[in-house]
Amino acid sequence: MSLCDCEQTPRSCYSPGVVEDDEVLLRVIIAPRDINKDGFLAPTAIQTKDLLTRGWSLVRRGHSTLQETDNFASELAKGQSVHGVGVISAEQVRVVLDPTGQRVFCVYDDALKALKAHASALHECEQNEKALKKARAAIIPFRDVLLSAIQPVHTIEEAYAAARQSK
Ligand SMILES: [Zn+2]
């Protein structure tokens, strides 16, 4: 995939580097927050607000140990429980195109002090109320592409076992 400017240089001194297309990214799923009554992921498991402003939070599996990911997930769960992780590659996020052929989401390293392997996916748009309102409606179908891609949800252990097998 051709990279956006924001994807081409590491963002912080904590970062292990730019996110490569073939990197596996994990999305922590929290229950009951992200799960609907049928046991499937609720659309709200991916907030359009995150995709538009803060960035949709992901863990770079190749740069985070099982223990680090587990700790990060427990931290996020705050009193709820860690249901598991959705698994997606950077490329799967980057290949989402709008009808005009433009990429919808960027994926870039977004290291946190607590988790160097943190990444974010973002739909870049102007951060003003009018632009955000328009974008919020426009990106729903693309949000749903991501929602399907991260299912089925795996346990963190399964996600790491799959990594060992693919080596
Ligand atoms: Zn970008």
What do these coordinates show?
The chain is of the alpha+beta class. It has one domain. It is 32% helix and 19% strand. It is built from 6 helices and 5 strands, in the order βαβαβαββααα. The protein has helices at residues 48-54, 66-77, 90-94, 129-138, 140-149, 156-165; strands at 24-31, 56-60, 81-89, 106-109, 118-122. The protein has a 5-stranded antiparallel beta sheet with strand order 3-1-2-5-4. The longest helix is centred in the middle third of the chain and has 12 residues, at 66-77. The two termini are 23 Å apart. The relative contact order is 0.23. The structure holds zinc ion.
List keywords for this structure.
167 residues, globular, binds zinc ion
